[in-house]
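Module 6 notes. Inverse folding takes a fixed backbone as the condition and produces residue identities as the prediction. Think of it as a translation problem where the source language is geometry and the target language is the twenty amino acids. Below is one complete input and output pair. Work through it position by position during the lab.
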């Protein structure tokens, strides 16, 4: 009979306690003692896990608090729900909804080839090009333009790149495509509930809009770098970040255990309004530095990614520019992150986009679901 490790048994008992394991960052945890009267710090270093408890300090062995952290992490990974966004394919007649359809022929257009189908019941023919109907250019050209632009190229550079592969367009056409599909994807992306961690970060950075300084407030998950919510403000000190935090609660479907921000007063006021609730106590860490155990370097790295994109644009022309929205979608769903082992933040929190063309899959799923309002979406409209 296999013997049971007593430390592992006690670690499981600790995890079952309410809010027993609190995660400050990816390497620093606070674990309640089993008696519940104190706590110990567990830190991951280059030499391995260390704990401040006497069991580890004097025996130099893996204690129950380190095991509790490891068990807690594994549990979080197991409970993550998965959502798979697959390419949209034709399955029924668009006139009579019959599934008795078959391929008929291929229509050759200037923009490319489109498959036509015939319904065996109503005898009507139709083509399937959802979300790209009546577009002069094929979906590949449109999604390639969006990929090039949000990877860092300007509108004119994107136009010239597409001309090399025979797609003759103007830079204004590229901008029209971005505007057309931005609103569609924004509405859909905010209906998706990501399985984010219990540690969030918030920060602000300035941008130029019509040569005036504005501030982009962003809320991001610490563990998987998923950008949960964002908004534009005219100032920092007088801005009420409560709407940002409320939007984050609705999209994520919960409040975090830990919120890390800088010392800006608007965060403290918004934290009191939105994250101090009767059933859960969120810890607000606002004394941050560039170095040490508690810092906001991940958020600064996120801001740096956005500033690199801004160098090409030299500012925005309007406060409601679609660039902010699609940059968030590109960050969450399209761009892989080396810190996440090549995954996107969406994939790290259980949202997988299949198919070779992620932009096309995302746009078509957004089109199919554009008329479906969720409770979360209604709550955002009512706030």
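Target side of the pair, the amino acids:
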């Amino acid at each position: 009979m296999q013997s049971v490790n007593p430390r592992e048994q006690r670690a499981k008992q600790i995890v079952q306690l309410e809010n027993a394991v609190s995660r400050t960052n990816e390497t620093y945890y606070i674990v309640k003692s089993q008696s519940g009267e104190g706590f110990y710090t567990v830190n991951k270093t280059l030499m391995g896990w260390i704990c401040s408890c006497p069991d580890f300090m004097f025996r130099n062995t893996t204690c129950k608090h380190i095991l509790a952290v490891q068990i807690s992490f594994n549990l979080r990974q197991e409970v993550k729900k998965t959502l798979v966004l697959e390419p949209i394919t034709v399955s029924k007649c668009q006139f009579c909804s019959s599934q008795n359809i078959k391929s008929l022929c291929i229509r050759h257009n200037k923009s490319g080839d489109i498959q036509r189908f015939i319904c065996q019941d109503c005898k009507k023919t139709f083509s399937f090009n959802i979300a790209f109907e009546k577009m002069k250019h094929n979906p590949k050209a449109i999604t390639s333009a969006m990929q090039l632009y949000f990877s860092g190229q300007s509108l004119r550079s994107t136009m010239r790149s597409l001309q090399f592969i025979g797609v003759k367009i103007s830079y204004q056409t590229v901008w029209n495509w971005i505007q057309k599909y931005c609103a569609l994807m924004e509405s859909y992306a905010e209906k998706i509930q990501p399985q984010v961690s219990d540690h969030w970060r918030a920060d602000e950075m300035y941008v130029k809009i019509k040569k005036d300084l504005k501030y982009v407030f962003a809320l991001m998950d610490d563990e998987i770098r998923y950008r949960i919510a964002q908004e534009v403000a005219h100032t920092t000190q007088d801005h009420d970040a409560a709407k940002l935090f409320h939007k984050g609660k609705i999209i994520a479907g919960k409040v975090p255990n830990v919120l890390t921000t800088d010392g800006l007063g608007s965060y403290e006021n918004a934290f009191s309004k939105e994250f101090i609730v009767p059933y859960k106590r969120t810890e607000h860490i606002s004394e941050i530095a560039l170095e040490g155990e508690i810092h906001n370097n991940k958020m600064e790295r996120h801001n740096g990614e956005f500033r690199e994109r801004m160098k090409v644009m030299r500012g925005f022309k309007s406060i409601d520019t679609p660039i902010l929205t699609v940059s968030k979608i590109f960050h969450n769903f399209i761009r892989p992150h080396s810190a996440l082992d090549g995954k996107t933040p969406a994939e790290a929190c259980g949202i997988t986009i299949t198919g070779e063309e992620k932009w096309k899959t995302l746009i078509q799923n957004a089109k199919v679901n554009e008329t479906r309002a969720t409770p979360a979406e209604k709550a955002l409209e009512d706030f």
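Reference fact for the lab report: DSSP finds 13 helices and 16 strands in the chain.
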